[in-house]
Amino acid sequence: MKNQQRKSRTELRRIQLDGLKETVKRVYENVPFYKNCFDRLGITPEDISSLEDLEKLPFTTKEDLRDNYPFGLLAVPMKDIVRLHASSGTTGKATVVAYTKKDIGTWAGLMERVLRYCGVTESDIIQNAYGYGLFTGGLGFHYGAEKLGATVVPISGGNTKRQINLMQDLGSTVLTCTPSYALHLAEVAGEMKVDLKKLPLKVGIFGAEPWSEKMREEIEEKLSIKAFDIYGLSEVMGPGVACECSAQEGLHIFEDHFIPEIIDPKTGKTLPPGSEGELVLTTITKEGLPLIRYRTRDITSLIEEECSCGAVHVRMKKIMGRSDDMLIIRGVNVFPSQIESVLMTIDELNPHYLLVINKKGTLDELEVWVETAHKSGDLSARISREIYAVLGINVKINLVPPKTLKRSEGKAVRVLNKNEAAL
Ligand code: DLL
Hints:
Domain AMP-dependent synthetase/ligase: 76-281
Family: Belongs to the phenylacetyl-CoA ligase family.
Radius of gyration: 22 Å
Structural class: alpha/beta
Largest sheet: 9 strands, mixed
Keywords: Ligase, Nucleotide-binding
Shape: globular
Bound molecules: 5'-O-[hydroxy(phenylacetyl)phosphoryl]adenosine
Pathway: Aromatic compound metabolism; phenylacetate degradation
Function: Catalyzes the activation of phenylacetic acid (PA) to phenylacetyl-CoA (PA-CoA).
């Protein structure tokens, strides 16, 4: 087994090198932006003769995509593009991503693989509650489900009561949506007196936003399912860049299509194996919008050891958050998902929270708004103690009645920066 895996990794590295060389040549010849970047660094495609040479190549950032909006980074003529998507872009202009027919086929193949990793078969009925439209979640899952031969219910996000009625009527066995929406569905089912545990639902595939292990437990308990984590981003493909296998000890990055690296987000230097840092991805099979060393801003680390599932693809740890979502509270770096982990250990709380940043003098103060059925001063003190014990920061707790905080149908908004809101 060990030998076999080593052989497969050698084979994988060969596939990666071929794909890398081809991609570098493709962008050099077809994308003026890359030609200019390479020329400035004095590199030509011939300089790439091993995977280690990847480090010589320039990074691509979201800024670069914005500067070349909408079609400046395409490596094929527009007539070869069959589909466009766009990433939401909460700040500034959205970015547009484009796919050739072959890219759509590759993506569907990756999503079929995701579904198989999560134990989904052609006999399953997949209720796809990711948003359909410019967001990649809905159509990404849709095409993968059809390629697998499962039955897909293209309900999209929202319409929560209808989701629950259909789930009962059709007997959906798989739910795909953001983890925050899965919790909202469970809550509304409760109001409708529908016992989700009695339904045939057995698997959920959740992603598009950070979610803690505690949130997984909560979802698995409330919906009586096994919950898998899926990762992806529009620029690189959409969902289907990485996903958990049955072992659920990290997400396998599909290395036959993407080469991962971990860098120090401040210096841009590649970090030693196992270090935590920013995930950088290079696409090696894409035609329409190939990207060299794309800086995802997502913080994780790679797990180099072999996985018990037998797959050769390297794993990454669950994404804690994005470097641009990281809060710095009195010098301590905190991701919203770390606060979520603490909140979800406290039985009296509902799994709905909002972090509010306030400037007090020159220092940032963090308020944690969280829902609870029982409002008591003692509880606030306890939560704040637990957060201090785990994260070493003092926060102000604001307990609010159930159903006060806004529910999400897609990606949840977890942080409100009052300093920015006031500008
Ligand atoms: O969210 C693609 C997707 C759809 C992934 C459905 C999974 C399921 P974007 O809208 O471009 O694409 O957002 C990408 O979302 O850089 C991460 O910051 C975050 N993200 C995606 N999946 C996860 C995850 C889709 N499993 C951005 N855990 C990424 C944590 C995630 N963050």
